[in-house]
Known about the structure:
The structure is a homodimer. Chain A has helices at residues 2-29, 36-43, 47-53, 57-82, 86-103, 105-113, 127-140, 150-169, 178-189. Chain A is mainly α. The longest helix of chain A has 28 residues, at 2-29. Chain A is elongated. The interface between A and B is large, with 39 and 39 residues. The first copy, chain A, binds a DNA duplex through residues 3, 35-37, 45-52, 56-57.
Amino acid sequence: xxxxxxxxxxxxxRERLIVTxxxxxxxxxxxxxxxxxxxxxxxxxxxxxxxxxxxGKEAIMAAVAVQGCAELAAEMRTASRAAKxxxxxxxxxxxxxxxxxxxxxxxxxxxFTHRVDLPFATPEAPAELQEAFAELLAAVEPIAAExxxxxxxxxxxxxxxxxxxxxMRSGRLPEGAHERRLELLTGHFTAEASx
Amino acid sequence: xxxxxxxxxxxxxRERLIVTxxxxxxxxxxxxxxxxxxxxxxxxxxxxxxxxxxxGKEAIMAAVAVQGCAELAAEMRTASRAAKxxxxxxxxxxxxxxxxxxxxxxxxxxxFTHRVDLPFATPEAPAELQEAFAELLAAVEPIAAExxxxxxxxxxxxxxxxxxxxxMRSGRLPEGAHERRLELLTGHFTAEASx
DNA sequence: GCCTTGATTCTAGCAGTGCTAGCGAATCTG
DNA sequence: CAGATTCGCTAGCACTGCTAGAATCAAGGC
Lengths: 195, 195
């Protein structure tokens, strides 16, 4: 029994090693540098061990993405706590979100850009994802108008943030005016919708 | 001289052939199916001819993207013309944009998601790109508030549309509520910002 | 203590990718 | 008709994700 548990512990340890190695490599040189061979060399094992832990490269990216979601949720939470008022909190959360995306582009891509086999908008989604969304929701809900569904409004605001970040990062929007665009987005969401 | 021109004409013809073949293959089976070998077989030439026309696969995708921009601009324009009023036009253009993205996902990805070496937010950007942006601008400008920069507001609205489309297509937002989210986005942009 | 049994990790290889060097043939020029 | 030049092809490089089967190591029974 004890031997069994030691082995399981070692396995779990190695799995964490794989995930952090993948993440660090991706953050340092981008996901295109994360090849199974490079990753195997990094953890000082041979290639096939990766496949005894994960179904494939996508699954490794998914594991990294889940980690990232937990961090994003935490950063949005602390930003929200430090701010005052409905508008202040939404602004703070929006800034925390985009700051995270710009500081950790590779992590962000694994979470929200790359095709990755994670359940998202369902109850089966990993707790970390739901946590991150809940954090956004908590900031958006107070500024929702009477008849608006807060969930849908949050999704829409999220889309705005995501669009800003991705278009900017791919060079399709100039970096310089980011703060002003973010301000515009948040400003229009905290206004009363004229329907 | 005539021989020269005939050759140039044939070359240009073949170049168009490459671009349309790439586009059709991408739309039918996705960009991951568009390999240089497959593409070469499709145009009934060998692989290396592709490289006598384009610097690489990315350049081919860029050419497809430019085509797509022209079409998107045209579709937004006709939608805008058919609509009435400031709000009606913005709604129509937003719907045209997202409808285009959902109907031609591969084309959309080449234009706005995949990393592609096209100048975007500069005067050197291809005319087709500027045209598409101008079409959006024309719809957004009338609803801009007093002190708002219409260009920045357009970029922000664009980001919202782009976020909605990409998050939905990657399964991160449920497809069902798309119309309602789009309505929320447009609604908040046509409202007065409370700054 | 030795040998068998079982799991675990590695070597080697497959089928594919984007891209390119250099040969062969077809074409135009003098 | 011979020579020069352009053109497209064959073949191959270095890489990718992934896997079958050999080899190695540790545990258990005698």
